[in-house]
Write a structure and sequence with these properties.
Layout lengths: L5 H17 L5 H14 L3 H23 L2 H38 L16 H16 L9 H9 L12 H9 L5 H33 L8 H22 L1
Helix pairs in contact: 1-2, 2-3, 2-6, 3-4, 3-5, 3-6, 4-5, 6-7, 8-9
C-alpha cells in the first residue's frame, strides 16, 4: 500500500485518524499497532508473522541484555544480531548467493541449484536494522528496554517509516510512544507536511521517474550524449524528491 495510492488516501488514512482520535490515551498505541499490522499485511501477510516472532525474541533478549552480566548480555546481543541478519540475508540475498554458487558449479560440471521463489518483504532492511539498533543500544547502555511489549511492537511496525525509513532508534521516540502531547497546531502542521511530501512524490519524483525509464529503455545506438545526460538528471531528481517527500 503506497502513500499516494487511493486506498491509503481515501480509506486507510481517514479510518485510522477517526479510530485514533476516538480512542482514549491508553488505547492509542494499540490502534497504531493494529493499523500498522494491517498496512504491512496488505503487501506481505506471511512476513508479519516472521517479524512478530523475531520481535518477541528481541524484546526478551533486550530484557536479558539489560538485567544480566556483560558476558551474558553480549551473548544475547549476538544471538539477536545473528537472527536479524539471518532474516535479511535469507530474503534479500539467498538467490544472489545461489546464482553465484551456480556459476562455480557449472564451471566444474556440477548440477546447478534451483532458484527459490522468495518474495522480498516491504521494508525488511529498515525493520531488521532498527531491531538491531535496539539491542545494541541497550548493550551499550545508551537506552533502556521498552517498558511494554506493545510500545516495542509499535516502534517496530509503525507504518509511516516502513516503506522508506528512516531508521529510528527506540530511545529517540520512546517519550512520544509512551506520552503524547497532541496539539491542534501540530496536527495541522503534520497534515501540511504530508501534503508537501505527497506533492514531491507525485508531481516531481514520479514524473521524473517516467522520463528516466523512457530514456534508459532506448536502444544503445539511439541513446545520444544529450539524452543520456537528461536520463541521469531525471533519475537523480526522482531519487532526491522521492526520499525528500518521505521526510
Amino acid at each position: 500500500m503506497l502513500f499516494n495510492s487511493p486506498i491509503f488516501l481515501f480509506i486507510f488514512c481517514p479510518l485510522l485518524f477517526t479510530v485514533y482520535f476516538l480512542a482514549n490515551k491508553k488505547q492509542k498505541n494499540l490502534v497504531l499497532l493494529l493499523f500498522s499490522l494491517m498496512f504491512y499485511a496488505w503487501a506481505e501477510p506471511i512476513f508479519v508473522l516472521v517479524v512478530l516472532g523475531s520481535a518477541l525474541l528481541d524484546f526478551w533478549l533486550g530484557q536479558v541484555i539489560f538485567r544480566n552480566t556483560k558476558r551474558t548480555a553480549k551473548l544475547a546481543m549476538t544471538i539477536g544480531i545473528i537472527g536479524n541478519v539471518g532474516i535479511l540475508v535469507y530474503f534479500k540475498y539467498t538467490n544472489f548467493l545461489i546464482d553465484n554458487l551456480n556459476q562455480v558449479l557449472l564451471a566444474i560440471n556440477f548440477h546447478s541449484l534451483p532458484v527459490l521463489e522468495i518474495l522480498l518483504p516491504v521494508g525488511v532492511s529498515f525493520v531488521v536494522f532498527e531491531k538491531i539498533t535496539y539491542l545494541v543500544d541497550i548493550y551499550r547502555k545508551v537506552g533502556k528496554p521498552a517498558p511494554s511489549l506493545l510500545s516495542y511492537l509499535v516502534y517496530v511496525f509503525l507504518f509511516p517509516k516502513l516503506l522508506a525509513g528512516p531508521i529510528i532508534k527506540y530511545h529517540d521516540i520512546e517519550a512520544q510512544l509512551l506520552k503524547r502531547d497532541e496539539k491542534l497546531e501540530d496536527i495541522i502542521y503534520g497534515i501540511k507536511r504530508f501534503c508537501y511530501g505527497l506533492a514531491k512524490k507525485v508531481f516531481i519524483a514520479d514524473t521524473m521517474g517516467e522520463m528516466a525509464d523512457i530514456i534508459f529503455a532506448l536502444p544503445t545506438n539511439e541513446l545520444g550524449f544529450g539524452s543520456a545526460w537528461l536520463g541521469v538528471i531525471c533519475f537523480t531528481l526522482q531519487i532526491y524528491f522521492d526520499f525528500s517527500g518521505y521526510l
